[in-house]
Amino acid sequence: MKKVVLLWMFSLVLVSCGVSGENGNSNGNDQGESEVDSLSFEVEHTAKDDVGVFTMNLSNDSEKPVQLTFSSGQQYEIVVKDSDGDKVYMFSEDRMFTEAIIEEEIAAGDALSFEQGWDYMSGGKRVESNEYEATVSLTAQTVNGEKVVPDAFVQKLSVTIPESPEEEAQDKEEDESKDNQEKDASESAEQNRTEHENIRNIVVQGEQGEYTITGETSLNSDITYSVEDGHYILVEKKNIELHGSEKWKSFEIATEIEKENLPNAGVLTLVFSWEQAGEKQYHSILLENFNN
Question: Of 166, 192, 215, which residue constitutes the final position of a domain?
């Protein structure tokens, strides 16, 4: 009889311990998850001309204070990568941190904030203006004594790096050059539209020594062309072949000038010439402006 009672009591002890152990583990996990879930981590990036500023806020949304523990003086990490996935910036790189344990307390409804600047430098030079991806994380080890799971406080965000003063100056110069080219092209087109009474619908295509000129003429006499730069004749007189039997006959001229003979400055013109009423007649059109 004693053996039965002893066995029965021993079974009750085992069952009681098992239930107690399960409840203990469950409460511990729930408490740890609850502590981390009560914190919200937000990151913003402000791009200035010469520095980008990362602002980090860890807010305590609960109604009680939260204790954070960091294993060293490094409380956050920032890694920036380009579109190819190559690292261009890492906050902790080439920095020394104290190995002392750091504790931070966040009061209920309060926040723990950090601010870190980056001068856009990588490998001794400024990175190109472009879109980059930043990964920002807090390195807290525990929250109220509970271990923090990896990636609990991590944010990824897109970072836009503005143009440097040098890039802006270069862009401005390129824009001005483009505007000048468009202006020259417009002036060229305007000049070519100033047509002779016997030559019309002139269209010039090509650049850098290779040109195609089309148009119409009402001349019945032989008409020739030459190309010059104001100092030298680069293409000697050649006859123009006319097509059609109506009053206005079409023509197409294809001419090529070796690049070493092109002017470094000045303009390249095509000169029409013909004889009318016993007198030489001329009409010039602009092929290309080399004054850019």
Answer: 166
